């Protein structure tokens, strides 16, 4: 029963789990488990990072070891989203931002482990595995695996084909039992599950978060400025971005409500949230009140703005290292 409780904590709010049987087996056997989440140190961390950080808190609470990987080489491999010279500074910037974010969320960072990809990916053992893996994976499969993660260009670079292979091998070289990421990582996770066993490097479970849509709907990307709120955006800019978001009754896509669903509600739970002078604990009740006209778009925006500015205020107070 205790085991099932831990399993539920590990998998709650996820969109998809691959290898859930194995996870349960390991829990039952009392194995000391280890999971990692990687981030390519490309642009600027944005509020979408709140969601995986919340999840990491669940892992810690379930008593599993968690490593955060700053995938600096991956930032370079993905069409040089970072230059070779900038790699180290980017990691520092990410590390400061993410630690500040974790602290603002009351996640005990002293229990976390932090690694940097280039520290082991350039060494001989990793390189040997990479070369071996290159003899297993076709160009086509490598390209497909990266389709939702690596920037897609007309003439794909070899570096972009290596990207999913290195990510798969990270599982082996970080010595983890599973990897956690957004559901956009799915094809890379599948590649890892299919290919690593061929090299006798084992098969891990994979946990996937839903993607957080931007304020204007659609995937939150580092390039879509208006729909994306950076961790270091000043309060008045956050206020302006939220104010300009479309929030209409009866629309299929509502970025403001998505924010409640993926960011605000999971973070404030189990406490209630106050909107327009009323108390809510579920997305459905918020949606219903909005549709009925009991609360207005401006009410939704006001609560969201206050929530984010309070949280980001804490992050920014911790982290005064803008690039
Ligand atoms: N692919 C991840 C992203 O999209 C980054 C990553 C890189 C994750 C290497 C894990 C890993 O081992 O940001």
Q: Look at the structure and give the CATH class of the largest domain.
A: Alpha Beta
The total of beta strands comes to 8
Determine the N-to-C terminus distance. 48 Å
Helix percent reads 40-55%
Gross geometry:
globular
CATH superfamily of the largest domain: HUPs
Put simply, the count of helices is 14
What low-confidence regions span 5 or more consecutive residues with pLDDT below 50? Answer: none
Radius of gyration of CA atoms, rounded to a whole number: 20 Å
CATH topology of the largest domain: Rossmann fold
The overall number of domains is: 2
| Range of strand content | 5-15%
The average pLDDT value, as a whole number, equals 93
Category from helices, strands and their pairing = alpha/beta
| Order of strands, widest sheet | 1-6-5-2-3-4
The ordered H/E elements are HEHEHEHHEHHHHEHEHHEEHH
Q: From the coordinates shown, what is the CATH architecture of the largest domain?
A: 3-Layer(aba) Sandwich
Instruction: Enumerate the distinct ligands.
Output: tyrosine
Largest sheet properties: 6 strands, mixed
Describe the structure.
With 323 residues, the protein is α/β, with parallel strands linked by helices. It has 14 helices and 8 strands. The protein has helices spanning 2-11, 20-28, 50-61, 72-77, 87-104, 118-121, 124-134, 139-145, 158-173, 186-195, 235-243, 255-268, 283-292, 297-318; strands at 16-18, 34-40, 65-71, 112-116, 178-182, 205-209, 273-275, 278-280. The strands form 2 sheets. It has a 6-stranded mixed sheet, with helices on both faces. A two-stranded antiparallel sheet has the order 7-8. Helix 1 runs antiparallel to helix 2 (20-28), helix 7 packs across helix 9 and helix 8 packs across helix 9. The longest helix has 22 residues, at 297-318. The radius of gyration is 20 Å and the shape is globular. Bound molecules: tyrosine (TYR). Tyrosine (TYR) binds at residues 38-40, 69, 71, 74, 149, 167, 170, 185.
């Amino acid at each position: 029963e205790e085991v099932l409780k831990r399993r539920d904590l590990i998998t709650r709010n996820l969109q998809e789990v691959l290898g859930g049987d194995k996870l349960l087996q390991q829990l039952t056997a009392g194995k000391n488990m280890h999971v990692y989440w990687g981030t390519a140190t490309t642009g600027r961390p944005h509020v979408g990072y709140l969601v995986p950080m919340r999840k990491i808190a669940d892992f810690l609470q379930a008593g599993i070891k968690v490593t955060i990987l700053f995938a600096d080489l991956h930032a370079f491999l993905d069409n040089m989203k970072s230059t070779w010279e900038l790699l180290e500074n980017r990691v520092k910037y990410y590390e400061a931002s993410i630690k500040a974010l974790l602290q603002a969320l009351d996640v005990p960072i002293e229990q976390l482990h932090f690694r940097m990809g280039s520290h082991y990916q350039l060494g001989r053992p990793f390189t040997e595995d990479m070369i071996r893996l290159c003899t297993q994976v076709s160009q086509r499969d490598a390209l497909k695996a990266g389709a939702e993660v690596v920037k897609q260009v007309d003439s794909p670079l070899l570096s972009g084909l290596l990207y999913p292979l290195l990510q798969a091998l990270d599982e082996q070289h970080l010595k983890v039992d599973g990897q956690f990421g957004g559901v956009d990582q799915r094809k890379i996770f599948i590649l890892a599950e299919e290919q690593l066993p061929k090299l006798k490097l084992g098969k891990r479970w994979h946990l996937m978060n839903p993607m957080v849509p931007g304020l204007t709907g659609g995937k939150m990307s580092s390039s879509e400025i208006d729909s994306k709120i950076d961790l270091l955006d000043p309060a008045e800019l956050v206020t302006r971005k939220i104010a300009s978001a479309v929030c209409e009754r009866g629309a299929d896509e509502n970025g403001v409500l998505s924010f409640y669903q993926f960011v605000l509600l999971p973070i404030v739970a189990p406490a209630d949230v106050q909107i327009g002078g009323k108390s809510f604990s579920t997305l459905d009740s918020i949606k219903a009140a909005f549709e009925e006209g009991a609360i207005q778009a401006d009410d939704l925006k006001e609560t969201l703005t206050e929530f984010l500015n309070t949280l980001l205020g804490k992050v920014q107070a911790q982290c005064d290292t803008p690039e």
